[in-house]
Design a protein that fits this description.
CATH topology of the largest domain: Arc Repressor Mutant, subunit A
Radius of gyration: 38 Å
Helix content: 55-70%
CATH class of the largest domain: Mainly Alpha
Number of helices: 18
CATH architecture of the largest domain: Orthogonal Bundle
Number of strands: 6
Shape: rod-shaped
Strand content: 5-15%
Largest sheet: 4 strands, antiparallel
Order of helices and strands: HEHHHEEHHEEEHHHHHHHHHHHH
Number of domains: 3
Length: 405
């Protein structure tokens, strides 16, 4: 394979394999190409983080380009510029000589320019009798022509990363604001849910924010804050659903007090048995309202461990029982979706009873969330009833009481 002539730097500056490869790659670049030199400069500037260049090095590159005549780089033109250090310093607003040499070295290492040193290390050009440059020694701008497409691609990647960074940062700011305000609403309104734990989780996540975050840091923080936002939203939705159901229960109570029994039956068509359908009375009762099937006092005797998590450290109503179950659910690590499924299948009171029973046996259950999902699936198929579970726990606690006595 035919290649161009490989040149080495003057003096004690070493030659490296990387410099050899860059020169070979530059010599093998396609001919008959035209590239706007300032367009390439903008691409290099945008991709400077990928190339390991700083602003001062870019200022030196800008100065080198001003010594090249014409707006376009071409293989047909001489791509070597040969300004002295004094001329470069003048065009870079008086940059110091030491800094100038360092920046030139960085441009060479990044593969943006190539040194073409003369025998004595000076920069100059020999011209023909017609005044054309026959040979020049200085810095070759050929890599800008050869790698123009590469620099453009790098610039586009960096721009895309910056855009994703801004989008992720904006999303994190919005989610953080939303979580902060939603937690405040829950705490100030005294709504059901472990708002203290949500507050502690929020403070912990914010405390891990990096002062100068990377894109990876922002993505990680956004994922954590989004999960917390989902949990807080579910707690608020639970309160809203509970309020609606509580209002419906009051309305149903008014119908029950109506002396017209036929009107009552018409308003409750779901209790009627369809033709060919066999209902399970026990499961039907538990799903429609476990608070009617089981007295609250019996539930609390079977599951006394849930009592301290009620409002004020006690439970005096089914509403407080359900609120305490939400808190215990979070402590057990049961996901909001698993609890919602249980509420849908067993009813809110039934799900609260199931969680209370699971909490009584927390030390014997490896995964409370998985156990609840299994109970929910069985209940959906008609293979699970709350009554045996509750009575088993009631008997277990009765034996403990007798033994301690």
């Amino acid at each position: 394979m035919e290649t161009g002539y490989i040149t080495t730097p003057f003096g004690r500056r070493p030659m490296t394999l990387a410099l050899v490869k860059r020169q070979v790659k530059t010599d093998q670049a396609a001919a008959d190409r035209l590239v706007d030199k300032w367009r390439v400069f903008r691409d290099v500037s945008d991709a400077r983080s990928r190339l390991g260049l700083q602003d001062r090095a870019l200022a030196v590159l800008n100065a080198l380009l001003t010594f090249f005549p014409g707006p376009e780089l071409s293989d047909e033109a001489n791509l070597v510029v040969f300004p002295s250090n004094d001329q470069l310093s003048a065009r870079t607003n008086g940059i110091a000589g030491t800094t100038l040499r360092k920046c030139l070295g960085l441009l060479v290492e990044a593969g943006v320019i190539i040194r073409k040193d003369s025998p004595n290390g000076k920069r100059y050009a020999r011209k023909s009798e017609e005044g054309k440059i026959e040979d020049a020694y200085g810095f070759s701008l050929a890599p800008l022509l050869a790698r123009a497409h590469e620099f453009a691609a790098l610039a586009q990647e960096v721009a895309a990363e910056k855009r994703r960074f801004r989008i992720t940062k904006d999303r994190l700011t919005i989610v953080r604001r939303d979580v902060r305000k939603l937690i405040t609403v829950g705490m100030e309104e005294g709504l059901a849910g472990d708002w203290t734990a949500a507050e502690a989780c929020f403070v912990e996540i914010v405390g891990r924010f990096a002062r100068r975050p990377t894109a990876k840091d922002l993505v990680s923080s956004l994922e954590e804050m989004s999960l917390l936002h989902e949990e807080v939203s579910r707690m608020l939705e639970y309160n809203e659903d509970f309020t609606k159901n509580d209002g419906n229960a009051i309305a149903d109570g008014c119908h029950i007090q109506n002396s017209n029994t036929e009107s009552c039956n018409e308003s409750e068509p779901r209790f009627e048995k369809k033709q060919g359908e066999q209902l399970e009375p026990k499961r039907q009762t538990e799903r429609m309202g476990a608070q009617e099937a089981f007295p609250l006092s019996m539930v609390l005797r079977a599951c006394p461990e849930i009592v301290p998590y009620g409002q004020g450290g006690s439970i005096g109503s089914w509403r407080e029982m359900m609120m305490a179950a939400v808190t215990v659910r979070s402590m057990l690590g049961v996901s909001p979706s698993a609890y919602e499924d249980a509420c849908e299948v067993m009813g809110q009171a039934g799900a609260a009873i199931a969680v209370a029973c699971i909490y009584e046996r927390a030390g014997q259950i490896n995964s409370a969330g998985g156990y609840l999902r299994d109970l929910t699936a069985k209940a959906r198929r008609g293979e699970f009833s709350l009554a045996p579970m509750l009575h088993t726990q009631l008997r277990a606690n009765s034996r403990v009481v007798k033994a301690s006595a």
